[in-house]
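Take a look at my tokenised protein here and describe the backbone shape.
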Amino acid sequence: MTRKIAMVSHLTDLNAGIQANEDLRYWLTKTPQERLAAVTFLVNQNLRPSQRMDKSATSQKKVK
């Protein structure tokens, strides 16, 4: 029995990491209300009229 090892390579765009840092810095300059409004807007774009978001897959932490 012979084993073969396949060569795996991942090409990464160096600008992608820079863009992610810029995106993070941008969103950290926004208030929590503005961030929540942006998330709500994006979620609503993917829902059909009168459809509600399924929250059964999320877990809620109890606040002490």
